[in-house]
Amino acid sequence: MQIILCKSTHDVGRRAADIIEARLRQGPTVLGLATGGSPALTYQELIRRHREEGLSFSRVSAFTLDEYAGLPPAHVQSYYSTIRREFVDHVDMPLERLYTPQGDAADLNDEAARYDRAISAAGGVDVQVLGIGTNGHIGFNEPTSSLQSRTRVKMLASRTRADNARFFEDEAEDVPRLCLTQGLGTIGEARQVVLVALGSNKAAAVRAMVEGPISAFCPASALQLHPHATVVLDPAAAADLALADYYREAQELHEQLL
Ligand code: PGA
After folding, report:
1. Does ligand 1 have an atom closer than 6 angstroms to the CB of 182?
2. Probe ligand 1: pick from 158, 163, 193, 195, max atoms within 8 Å of CB?
3. Is ligand 1 within 6 A of the CB of residue 139?
4. What are the pLDDT digits (tens) for 51-75?
């Protein structure tokens, strides 16, 4: 796991965007896109590079991580609508190559299996963008999710529904109870993952992910098994790390050698 300790919250967006841009410059790219507050700065920076520097997404396909069950794609809080509003509609990525699980599918189990097949058919994800929940979830893989899970139906933890109530006029009861989410096994197959975390409310989850044991109790700790995982943190999210000095030294050395 590579840990990047940023000096500011804005730096997190820039560093994560650098990783995505580097992959885009290699050729056609399959991105895995997270929704939520954490990656917003990354998407804003990519949009800026598209507008001001001509960075093109014309050869990008993208799969979102998850979707609320029961919400049609057109719902304002569906992750399909959200990722369009926050990223895809502002760049030159062809909309027909944006894929989300269909939260209103008649058979959610079939839809989950179909989604995994669609990711494989596209050749797998090149770079997966991730946030982390205050309870250590990635996607909607809540604590005790199988470390080898595939895309499937999950029930949201009450903490997640409370955290996401801000998108539903502060009514946790209005946050759907079920979702479709890529599994930890699915996410682990991405060739590269970039997890961004911002703010002091993520510090404990970040520590458990990076320095705790690999455990289904902290689903993000599954990334310790990933051969190419980068964790990009602002100072508040990194505040509980025991080995911060080591990560900083490794980062400086890495930058000198580049
Ligand atoms: P956030 O959520 O980016 O909105 O903080 C992250 C997550 O719950 O995965």
Report:
1. no
2. 163
3. no
4. 999 999 999 999 999 999 999 999 9
Taking every pair of C-alpha atoms in the chain, what is the biggest distance, in angstroms? 54
Helices 40-53 and 9-24: crossing angle in degrees, nearest 10, is: 60
Q: Which atom of ligand 1 has the smallest separation from the CA of 34?
A: 9
What pLDDT, in 10s, does the model give residues 127-175? 999 999 999 999 999 999 999 999 999 999 999 999 999 999 999 999 9
Query: Hey, where are the domains in the chain?
Result: 2-257
Judge contact between 242 and 207, C-beta under 8 A.
yes
- For 184, other C-beta atoms within 10 Å of its C-beta total 24
> Residue 30 — left, alpha, or beta (φ > 0 → left; ψ -120 to 50 → alpha)?
beta
Model pTM score: 0.96
Among 127, 76, 74, 66, residue whose Cα is nearest residue 101:
66
Q: Is 90 exceeded by the pLDDT of residue 258?
A: no
Torsion of CA 112, 116, 122, 127, to 10 degrees: 110
Q: Which CATH class is domain 2-257?
A: alpha beta
How many CA atoms does the CB half-sphere of 128 hold within 13 Å? 28
Copy the structure tokens of residue 66.
Answer: 């998850």
**CA 245, CA 258: separation in Å to the nearest integer?**
20
CA of 247 to the centre of ligand 1 (A): 23
Q: Give the distance (Å) from ligand 1 centre to CA of residue 24.
A: 24
Pair 87, 13: CB distance under 8 Å: no
User: What is the 243 CA–ligand 1 centroid distance (Å)?
Assistant: 24
